Amino acid sequence: MHPGQIMLTGRMDIQLHPFDLAVEATRCQELARTAMSAAGQPGGALIGNRFPEIAEMDGNLALGAYYRGDLAGMLLGQPVRNDRWFCNQVALALDMCENLHWLDDAFKISELHVHPDVQSCGVGTALLAEADRMITHSRTVLVTNATGNHRTKEFYRRRGFRTITGPFQWMNLFQRVLVLGRMTPR
Known about the structure:
GO terms for molecular function: acyltransferase activity, transferring groups other than amino-acyl groups. Residues 14-185 form the N-acetyltransferase domain. InterPro entries: Acyl_CoA_acyltransferase (IPR016181), GNAT_dom (IPR000182). This is N-acetyltransferase domain-containing protein. It comes from Saccharopolyspora rectivirgula. By secondary structure, this protein is an alpha+beta fold. It has one domain: 3-Layer(aba) Sandwich (Aminopeptidase), CATH 3.40.630.30. The chain is 31% helix and 27% strand. The chain is built from 5 helices and 8 strands. The chain has helices spanning 21-38, 51-56, 84-96, 123-134, 150-158, and strands at 14-18, 61-67, 70-79, 106-114, 139-145, 162-163, 168-169, 176-183. Strands 1, 2, 3, 4, 5, 6, 7 and 8 form an 8-stranded mixed beta sheet that branches. The protein is globular. The termini are far apart. Residues 1-10 have low confidence and may be disordered.
């Protein structure tokens, strides 16, 4: 078994619980790169660059899905008000679509990744549902690739997210992204 690989046998017993991102940053980075590579998504080389900063943010949520002790999925997020960098990146695109209000009382999902061996088994849905129970904000927002990302966008659409910006350039990179949002289920 190579690093990051999860062998599935018998009934899956996934355990969800918060973790310390400062302690688990390397495992999170490996999981994110594995999941993004398997999905053919760009940006894997950049993933994790902000983990140390995210770990220090007030209101940070780091939620893990563990299968036999291995990190099989993760969700990272924080209140939008605590991430000025994010607000600066998305404000113009939101404003152009008259959706700047989506930053008010919003929780941002920074990362949601599931190991390819356990995708389509409900792990991502379970992580989102657990995060919904833990956060108090009225809205949930996230950024996702605008092109070549149908499966991910469909995953979020089925869970109530809608596109709230047009495609825009992300961080002066080649990548174009969309902001998705939904009212946080209660």
